[in-house]
Write a structure and sequence with these properties.
The chain has 2 domains: 234 residues, 3-Layer(aba) Sandwich (Rossmann fold); 94 residues, ANL, C-terminal domain (GMP Synthetase, Chain A, domain 3, 2-Layer Sandwich), CATH 3.30.300. Helix content is 25%, strand content 28%. It is built from 9 helices and 19 strands. Strands 4-3-5-6-7-8-9 form a 7-stranded mixed β-sheet, with helices on both faces. Strand 6, helix 5 and strand 7 form a beta-alpha-beta unit. Helix 1 crosses helix 2 and helix 3 packs across helix 4. The longest helix has 14 residues. It is globular and about 65 Å long. The N and C termini lie far apart (60 Å). The mean pLDDT is 91.
Length: 346
Amino acid sequence: MPELTPESPAAILYTSGTTGRAKGAVIDHGAFLAQARGAIEMWRWTPNDVLVHALPLFHLHGLGMGLIGTLLSGGSATLVHFSPEAVVAELTRQDPQRGTMFFGVPAMYQRLCDWLDQNPTDLSGVRLFVAGSAPMPPALFERCTRLLGQSPVERYGITEGGIVVTNLYDGPRQAGRVGVPFPGVEVKLGDKNEILIKGGQLFQGYWRNPAATAEALTPDGFLRTGDVGEIGEDGTLAIRGRLKELIISGGFNVYPREVELVLETHPSVQEVAVAGVPSSKWGEEVMAFVVPSQLAPLNEAELIAYARERLAHYKCPQRVVVLDRLPRNAMGKVLRANLTALPQTT
């Protein structure tokens, strides 16, 4: 084996590229160890655990947490190509290799819940469900609680900074909030409520891009995540959106996630993404891209009126675009920049 130190580079992981060109983040061995140790402590990961692992191994969630966390904990993992049937089969096996944990993204949980609605299954033997990599709508969170037999633990991370915030294993597990920092991690809010993080899990820098590296770090060593957050009185963090996704309409700031959280509560909405589009009157205006549910017919005027009852007028969508599905990357994150290029019907 080569002689390694915590500072030795271990991998180059590329950012999602949802709001710009993907960049290669150099992750060292110490960073991988720091975040995996945090998860082992916070999620009570033991050598007796079996992770049902259906995440891509090129991504931080699947590699840095799923694989390295398994190896460091002394537990084991069963690798499967994701389908609800395959995951449920591994979580209900009647042998010592039955899965005790599952990590997934919200799109996976959506499909899993759809399947469980038609095929009710007792999953009480599963110790832990973890969700991350994209926001989980409150309605999906409640659906998971009902169909899985427990609420998923939502967590927060970023390629350059590791997986660093989680809801507590013993609760409360709160929809829309991603919890408290891992041990050894500092989290604070900077200008415009940008989430700043610091700890041993931070990346070394961007591959062959020192200018971008310098821009990403504050003078005192915090990583600028680009995410907008809110820290509640109980110390838990909520994600409100991305700085680059900020919509400025008539001089007012609109964070898409705030609008999405309201629209997701309407029975006609299965999924929604909000983006800003050019407006000669306002500079930008809010547009909602909606995948309809089967529970109620979707009516544009009714949905806009619903938003106006719950949001300031300038935050409400001016138009609603109906889509069969939202554009997503391999980790289930919405490619918001692609939305306005899609064929549009209202």
